[in-house]
């Protein structure tokens, strides 16, 4: 496997001269814990001004929900002022999407697809890439219990896409990454978080806007401990996503002086979880982390039936979703969960609702929007819609240069001969040589009485 990406042989004949401004980024993790009181070793100050509430069952002391509010990343460019492209192409940019409309992660499909479509709309309103409109082709990824993803990728490759946005599931991406990158096509995931992709042998063609689970897992573990837990139990999906998160939550808990007293595994496709729940409940931990996808709909009622209080429950991005139609009102009130990325701003939500009026979830919409926007900018910077030529420009358009926040603003700078530093709805996107974002926000959500996750606070971390 290759640990470093190089631009050798990939950046020939680019339309825009680039300066070598990409600084070497040290590996290290700066976690900004929420400042919960009652244990853990966090020294970060809680500047929320919120009080604290004692949980009834576990004695955990966590900050009250202060109601997080998203902000737009920055000023948008003037579409009318975008200069004509100085490059041309005989092959218009065509992007495929491989996002879930069926399977255990189907709830993530609508916001991700809406994010893709909104970005395509914005790019084309600004005149497209290299003078031609961008086309998008959507296909279902399914989950790891089916072969839908392989069939979808075969179809997308047959239509000569330059890049594929997806999959959402790390497990699914592992089944198709060789098929995609082996064809010289970029795979750009808005939601893959498995640390395994950092060193994957992908010919420099795999990228993601979601941070590795090194960040989410350690942030969640640190947060749980700073809320006062000393013992933690876990129910974990046995795949690349689940075990990656498990490992990093565990390391963070132990580093803070806590103990993971039990970890119970289950497999994709399982429908019975009584043995796992019985074992974890019997261990009587202060906090329980559920790392799953939609299986949480079955796991949660079993836990609460065992007397586990909702305030002891902590979720992750795969299952921090709206359960208002799935569970009895109040079942999850006080439970918490993490989702990578800043909270969606009101303006962004309104724009997405114009794309899909039925949207109720915003998870990874920003990451999907940013993936498409950066692909379009990379093609413009490369003067080509060839996947390898575009990949050679992705780190550059994310790094040092003039800050810009959408396609119109960024492409204006590029076409005027400048360098750009794109920041988007998913946060300050800056790629390392492995295609990973080097900094990210982790949103912490708390469930209300309707079993809906409400933004609580946002933690910033750097890799």
Protein described:
The protein is of the alpha/beta class. The chain folds into 2 domains: about 30-65 and about 215-340 and about 440-460, Rossmann fold (3-Layer(aba) Sandwich); about 80-210 and about 345-435, Response regulator (Rossmann fold, 3-Layer(aba) Sandwich), CATH 3.40.50.2300. It is about 30% helix and about 20% strand. It has 11 helices and 17 strands. Helix 7 links the parallel strand 11 and strand 12. Helix 2 (about 150-160) runs parallel beside helix 3, helix 4 crosses helix 5 and helix 9 runs parallel beside helix 11 (about 405-415). The longest helix is centred in the last third of the chain and has 18 residues, at about 365-380.
Short descriptors:
alpha/beta; 30% helix; Rossmann fold; globular; 18% strand; disordered N terminus
Question: What is the compact description of this entry?
Answer:
This protein is α/β, with parallel strands linked by helices. It has helices spanning about 110-125, 150-160, 170-180, 215-225, 240-255, 275-285, 295-305, 345-355, 365-380, 385-400, 405-415; strands at about 30, 50-55, 60-65, 95-100, 135-140, 165, 185-190, 205-210, 230-235, 260-265, 285-290, 315, 335-340, 400-405, 420, 440-445, 455-460.
Strand order, largest beta sheet: 1-17-16-13-12-11-9-10
Coarse morphology: globular
Looking at the overall shape, the CATH architecture of the largest domain is 3-Layer(aba) Sandwich
N to C succession of SSEs:
EEEEHEHEHEEHEHEHEHEEHHHEHEEE
Helical content band: 25-40%
Stretches where pLDDT is under 50 for at least 5 consecutive residues are 1-58
What is the CA–CA distance across the termini? Answer: 21 Å
Q: How many structural domains can be distinguished in the coordinates?
A: 2
| Average pLDDT taken over every residue | 87
DSSP strand content: 15-25%
CATH class membership of the largest domain:
Alpha Beta
Radius of gyration: 22 Å
Helix-strand category = alpha/beta
CATH topology of the largest domain: Rossmann fold
Count up the helices: 11
Please, what is the CATH homologous superfamily of the largest domain? Answer: Response regulator
Annotation, overall tally of beta strands: 17
Biggest beta-sheet profile: 8 strands, mixed
């Amino acid at each position: 496997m290759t640990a470093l990406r190089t631009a050798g042989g990939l950046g020939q004949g680019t339309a825009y001269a680039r300066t070598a401004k990409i600084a070497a980024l040290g590996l290290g993790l700066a976690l900004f814990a929420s400042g919960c009181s009652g244990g853990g070793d966090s020294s970060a100050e809680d500047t929320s001004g919120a009080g604290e509430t004692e949980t009834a069952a576990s004695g955990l002391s966590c900050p009250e929900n202060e109601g997080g509010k998203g902000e737009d990343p920055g000023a948008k460019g003037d579409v009318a002022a975008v200069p004509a492209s100085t490059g041309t192409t005989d092959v218009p940019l065509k992007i495929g999407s491989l996002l879930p409309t069926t399977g255990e992660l189907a709830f993530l499909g609508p916001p991700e697809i809406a994010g893709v479509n909104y970005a395509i709309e914005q790019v084309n309103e600004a005149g497209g890439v290299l003078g031609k409109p961008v086309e998008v082709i959507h296909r279902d990824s399914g989950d790891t219990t089916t072969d839908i993803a392989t069939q979808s990728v075969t179809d997308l490759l047959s239509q000569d896409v330059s890049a594929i946005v997806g999959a959402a599931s790390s497990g699914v991406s592992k089944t198709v990454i060789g098929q995609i990158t082996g064809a010289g096509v970029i795979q750009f995931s808005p939601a893959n978080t498995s640390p395994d992709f950092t060193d994957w042998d992908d010919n420099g063609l795999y990228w993601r806007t979601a941070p590795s689970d090194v960040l989410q897992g350690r942030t969640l573990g640190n947060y749980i401990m700073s809320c006062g837990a000393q013992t933690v139990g876990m129910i974990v999906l046995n795949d690349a996503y689940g075990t990656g998160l498990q490992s990093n939550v565990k390391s963070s808990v132990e580093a803070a002086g806590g103990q993971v007293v039990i970890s119970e595994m289950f497999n994709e496709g399982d429908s019975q979880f009584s043995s796992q729940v019985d074992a974890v409940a019997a261990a009587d931990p202060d906090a329980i982390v559920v790392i799953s996808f939609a299986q949480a709909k079955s796991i949660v009622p079993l836990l609460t039936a065992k007397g586990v209080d909702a305030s002891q429950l902590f979720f992750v991005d795969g299952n921090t979703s709206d359960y208002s139609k799935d569970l009895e009102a109040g079942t999850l009130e006080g439970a918490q969960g993490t989702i990578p990325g800043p909270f969606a701003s009101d303006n962004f939500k309104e724009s997405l609702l114009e794309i899909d009026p039925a949207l109720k979830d915003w998870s990874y919409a920003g990451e999907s929007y940013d993936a498409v926007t950066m692909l379009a900018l990379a093609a413009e910077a490369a003067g080509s819609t060839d996947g390898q030529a575009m990949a050679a420009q992705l780190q550059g358009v994310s790094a040092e240069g003039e800050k810009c926040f959408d396609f119109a603003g960024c492409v204006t700078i590029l076409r005027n001969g400048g360098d750009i530093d794109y920041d988007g709805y998913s946060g300050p996107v800056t790629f390392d040589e492995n295609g990973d974002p080097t900094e990210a926000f982790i949103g912490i959500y708390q469930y209300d009485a309707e079993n809906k996750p409400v933004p609580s606070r946002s933690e910033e971390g750097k890799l």
